[in-house]
Amino acid sequence: MINKVPESEIQNQIEYINKIKTLGEKRNYCINTMGCKLNEADSEKLCGMLDSMGYTQVEEFEYANIVIFNTCSIRENAEEKVFGKLGELKNIKEKNNMIICFAGCMSQEPHVIEKIKKSYSQVDIIFGTHNLYKFPEMLYNKLTNNNQKRIVDVWDIDGEIYEGLPIKRQSKTQASIIIMNGCNNFCSYCIVPYVRGRERSRQPEDILFEVNELAKDGCKEILLLGQNVNSYNPREGYSFANLLADLDKIDGIDIIKFTSPHPKDFKADVIDVIANSKKISRVIHLPLQSGSSKVLQSMNRGYTKEEYLDLAKRIKEKIPDALFTTDIIVGFPGETEEDFEDTLDVVRKMDYEQVFMFIYSVRKGTRAEKMEGHIPEDIKSERFNRLKALADGMLEESMNKYVGTTQRVLVEGESKTNKDMLTARTSSNKIVNFEGPKDLIGKEIELKIVSQHVWYLKGIIE
């Protein structure tokens, strides 16, 4: 059984939250979240703690007294961005009496910590992915002892599951639920197992309680998160399929999504649960990474091109209306033109709804770093552009299919680009913008799709 952080320790952190609140300081905070949905969910927890301390969230660094960088280590340019931001803050730190915190996956990488220690003296608190729950204690110690040197609290162990700390949800109608942390797969290009540790699953009782409470508060859609959700295994005899089936029974929750599954672990029982559910999304994210069996073996993905296509076929047989999205890495070490053509072949056969594509970049500490046959940047870029052209063309065809149809959508809120419009999503995750009253936010309605604009649809209320 996975160990939990003791309830007494969580209560200890809540006491620190209350102590900070009693300090009576009017402080603003700004959090910069980089990377995946898991990081976004972690940031919601940090925001929940800070709000409970009586602090106010602001969008711009220049108005903040506390700044948190919740970092990502998947791609090299993420490091460059965060170090650039740290440099910008150096000049306004004293003016705002600012406390700068560095957290997330990058903080678990030794070379990053050494760089901060050497070149970024403005950083006050550094903590990792395994001890985020101790943030109140670290912040209290810094607030009450300004002469204290930098606090560095990064753990090499895998950490424990923790429950019971406040969360500030970004939406009233949608919520992300972390069901597990870490990964056991050790794909040769990926740093995640080293920065988030081995797999640790939350107990189903805790997840079901959280979702039931969300449903009572008006939440309509949940997104289950994990590095490999279909490896969810909190105890013997209870699997990801069991969790999906139990969540499907909760009244008030209308849409259930999950990301990311791993093709090698996508079992028949999960397919059956989705097929028998009216709530679980038919849009299935099925990461490919490469269409070449040779490259997949080098990546340590655990399946071949043929096995991937066979899995998709079995899913479609049980779930005829299933749609697929995917992740693809272009230019992995050793990738030949023939290997890349295999990737394009799979993309054509799968007819993906959306392709999230990335140019391979070296991550220190991974096996791929030391592989032979690294691809020149110009070849990687040329292949990326060819894949993008193919995927964009397929996306336009897919969007055209919606025009003239009536779609049931969940209204999310105001459009980010036009406050006079509302934004909704179809069951296949397509964005639909339309004109309508604000009291529709949080409701499911039907819209007629009148046009497509590649990245979004336009609808009208009939």
Q: Outline of this structure?
A:
With 462 residues, this protein is an alpha/beta fold.
CATH class of the largest domain: Alpha Beta
State the end-to-end CA separation. 53 Å
Oligomer: single chain
Number of helices: 13
Secondary structure: number of strands: 19
Helix content: 25-40%
The best one-word shape is: globular
Query: Numbering strands along the chain, what is their spatial order in the largest sheet?
Result: 2-1-3-4-5-6
* CATH homology group of the largest domain: tm_1862 like domain
Broad structural category:
alpha/beta
The low-confidence parts are: none
User: What kind of sheet is the major sheet?
Assistant: 6 strands, parallel
Computed Rg: 23 Å
Q: Could you please say which CATH topology of the largest domain applies here?
A: pyruvate-formate lyase- activating enzyme
Share in β-strands: 15-25%
Number of domains: 3
- CATH arch. level architecture of the largest domain: Alpha-Beta Horseshoe
Mean pLDDT: 93
Q: How would you describe what is shown here?
A:
- The protein has 462 residues and is α/β, with parallel strands linked by helices.
- The chain folds into 3 domains: 7-153, Rossmann fold, CATH 3.40.50.12160; 174-400, pyruvate-formate lyase- activating enzyme, CATH 3.80.30.20; 406-460, Nucleic acid-binding proteins (OB fold (Dihydrolipoamide Acetyltransferase, E2P)).
- The protein has helices at 7-22, 37-52, 76-89, 110-119, 135-143, 192-196, 204-216, 240-248, 268-275, 293-299, 305-318, 337-350, 377-400; strands at 28-33, 56-57, 66-71, 99-104, 125-127, 151-153, 174-178, 180-181, 200-201, 221-225, 255-259, 283-285, 323-330, 354-359, 406-414, 422-426, 431-434, 444-452, 457-460.
- The strands form 5 sheets. A 6-stranded parallel β-sheet has the order 2-1-3-4-5-6, with helices on both faces.
- It is globular and about 65 Å long.
